């Protein structure tokens, strides 16, 4: 079994409920949504076997894998998750929520885009909802989102800092009016790490 891997690296989780934790990121290629603000090249990637991926990540002292993308559920199966679980790894996912998230995952992040109601149809309960937001967006009621332990608004970072600042201000003001949400900044971008 092979996976098309866009990127594989070791860093700190830069956003959400696990911010600051050392993690192995395995970014899988392709996505069914292809949002304009995504930081992934959807079509590029290297075909790697599970054994090749395991060999590469064993050099890192960490036992947390974050499956991200694109949309990792397009490739990620229970067979893949079991392989890494049997090799001692805990696994998180960052998904757009269009497809069901496996019960084998240790931490689930649903990051819906656009018409977000689809996410609850596929996933009733997740660890974290992380909603990307820009100035002027209509933030959905949590009643139509999957049930979560943490609800995060994540301001979209733009090439120009002024737009990014407006997005941050928009999220901050929204959270002050709706304190069920918390702010999730992309600290990895702020401090210049991968």
Write up what this structure looks like.
- This protein is of the alpha/beta class.
- The protein has one domain (2-191): TIM Barrel (Alpha-Beta Barrel), CATH 3.20.20.
- 23% of the residues lie in helices and 30% in strands.
- The chain is built from 5 helices and 9 strands; from the N terminus they run βββαβαββαββαβα.
- The chain has helices at residues 50-57, 78-86, 117-122, 161-177, 187-191, and strands spanning 2-12, 22-28, 46-49, 64-68, 90-95, 107-110, 125-133, 147-155, 181-183.
- It has a 9-stranded mixed β-sheet.
- Strand 6, helix 3 and strand 7 form a beta-alpha-beta unit.
- The two termini are 28 Å apart.
- The model has no long low-confidence stretch (mean pLDDT 90).
Reconstruct the topology from this structure.
Layout lengths: L1 E11 L9 E7 L17 E4 H8 L6 E5 L9 H9 L3 E6 L11 E4 L6 H6 L2 E9 L13 E9 L5 H17 L3 E3 L3 H5 L3
Parallel strand pairs: 2-4, 4-5, 5-6, 6-7, 7-8, 8-9
Antiparallel strand pairs: 1-2, 1-3
């Amino acid at each position: 079994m092979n996976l098309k891997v866009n990127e594989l690296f070791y860093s700190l989780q830069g956003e959400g409920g696990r911010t600051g934790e050392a993690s192995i990121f395995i970014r899988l290629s392709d996505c069914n949504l292809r949002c304009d603000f995504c930081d992934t090249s959807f079509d590029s990637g290297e075909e790697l076997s599970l054994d090749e991926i395991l060999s590469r990540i064993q050099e890192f002292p960490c036992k947390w894998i974050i499956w991200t993308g694109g949309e990792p559920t397009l490739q990620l199966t229970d067979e893949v998750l079991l392989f890494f679980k049997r090799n001692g790894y805990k696994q998180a996912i960052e998904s757009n929520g269009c497809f069901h998230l496996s019960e084998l995952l240790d931490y689930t992040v649903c990051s819906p885009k656009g018409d977000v109601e689809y996410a609850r149809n596929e996933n009733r309960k997740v660890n974290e909802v992380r909603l990307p937001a820009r100035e002027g967006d209509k933030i959905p009621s949590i009643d139509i989102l999957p049930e979560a332990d943490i609800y995060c608004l994540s301001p979209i970072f733009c090439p120009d800092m002024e737009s990014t600042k407006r997005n941050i201000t928009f999220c901050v003001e929204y959270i002050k009016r709706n304190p069920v949400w918390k702010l999730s900044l992309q600290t990895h971008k702020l401090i210049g790490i991968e």
